[in-house]
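Side project, low priority. Logging it here so it doesn't get lost.
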Amino acid sequence: MEAEKQSIKTLYTQRMELRSFSMDDLDEFHALCSQEEVMLPAGFSVSKDREESKKTLEQYSQCRTMWAVCDRTSHRLMGAAWMDGDPLRRLKMSEARMIGYLFSKECWGKGFATELGEELLRYGFEELGLLLICAGYFSTNPASGRVLQKLGFTEEIFMRGAYQCADGTITDNIDCSITREEYFQRKGIEQIKTLSTERLLLRAFTMEDLPDFYEYCKDPDTGIHAGWKPHESIEESREILHHFLEEREVWAICEKQSGKVIGSIGLHHDSKRRRNFDECRMMGYVLSKAYWGQGLMTEAAKEVLRYAFEELGLQMVTISHFSYNQRSARVIEKLGFHLEGTLRKAFLRYDGKLLDDVGYSMTKEEYQTIYHGEKK
């Protein structure tokens, strides 16, 4: 396993808690690692003695890709789960990962593996923003194959004589995968579509974006113009980024050349209008100060307008800015929005200032008139 000296996020299912391993787990961990019928089908060697289990546990307790799987009621160690790099694909950890698990024999046949797998998929696709998750099983372990099938995995390749087990036997391996699109379709969840412009890529955020996200969110001259205070810690940014992942209404604005996340843009519910979300949405955006004055926000917003009207089929898109923010006003005017007016003393900002809010809108008919025939 890939050892990284950071804590892994604790996850929960109805019956299980997935947490970091600790040396306090040694007794139950040694009992688990001593079960030949558990370890060999998962590709691990059986512990010869307690000391060998201790050395392995020391590694796992420092590993950010390995969970201890525990009973939520008794807190007893039931097994292990992992989410590591995919050795078969030349993809980054932020794009694809391989999952695996093992359970103590007494837990077999009770649906724990499927329950665990559902949570690993949720975490991987909905929180980490992965593009693909893969898994594999030995041909001698058809029970794992049935679990992966239930989870929606597709069998990709049957590799003959692919793995030499710890006991010296050679076994075939079946590799499987599930894509982000397949997962969301299976769950009936609408995912945010990746959009592209000449200089920018608009895509779903992932937790791997946290350093870039925090970098511009902590700038006191960035978020204030959108009404939110500068982030005071990376943990504050982590919580807000997690909210973005759950809501799936916000794109990360990425510079194509470097891949760096330089801002965000979204289509949200417009609380000022009593309109169906499928007909009317409000655009909001923020851009790192280091990238102001280059026309990037206009470029991103034009593509989001195209998507809103031509793909989502919206009837109206709205937008607003604080009356003092002439930089944003120029962007909105370039986009062709219709000025509706100013709501006086409409927004109480975090710093106590009561601000006027200038509102705009664009109908589908107006969009077609303005952008018809424009090169996309």
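Brief comment: The longest strand covers residues 154-164.
Revisit when time allows.
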